[in-house]
Amino acid sequence: MERSEPSKANNTTIDIMKILTTNWINILGVFIVTLFYAVILNHSDSNLNYNIFQSVVAGLILICLYGMMFWGLFIISLIVADLLLIVWSQKLLKQKLLLEWLLVSSPFIYWVIKYQEWISLIGIIAFFITQLLREKLIVKAMSV
């Protein structure tokens, strides 16, 4: 029995998954930078008197539990924006990634302005940097 070539639909699904899996850099980058910020903030607060271990645990609780709404919205927004902007055409990739950054960051910019949630500003900046790094990952993934 001969093995047939993969269908075009199957290749499209694989391409979509290749692009979506490049979001790991955004998630990891934002997580690490916001955790680092939270640890420094907790450790430097003279009212708390935390040691470094307590600062790390408090930072993890802040980011993972308090930030659950952030992570949910962030990941869903990334997937939807990728499906709408990047999956179907990688032309003008840098501009599309910057537009995606602006669209996904908009609610978090609002949080910074309205509630002075400065950790969101740190996340927005980290997301901007990881979007620029992600361009190389997408180009590499689509060339394989």
Structure, described:
Helix 2 crosses helix 3 and helix 2 runs antiparallel to helix 6 (118-143). This protein has helices at 8-21, 24-44, 52-66, 68-86, 93-115, 118-143. The model has no long low-confidence stretch (mean pLDDT 90). Helices cover 82% and strands 0% of the residues. The chain is built from six helices and no strands. By secondary structure, it is an all-alpha fold.
Spell out the blueprint of helices and strands.
Layout: H1 8-21, H2 24-44, H3 52-66, H4 68-86, H5 93-115, H6 118-143
Helix pairs in contact: 2-3, 2-6, 3-4, 4-5, 5-6
What's the shape?
elongated
Largest sheet: none
- Which stretches of 5+ consecutive residues score pLDDT under 50? none
- Proportion of residues in helical segments: over 70%
Query: Rg, please?
Result: 19 Å
Distance between the termini: 28 Å
Q: What is this entry, summarized?
A:
This protein is mostly helical and 144 residues long. The chain has helices spanning 8-21, 24-44, 52-66, 68-86, 93-115, 118-143. It contains 6 helices and no strands.
Based on the model shown, name its key terms.
single chain; mainly alpha
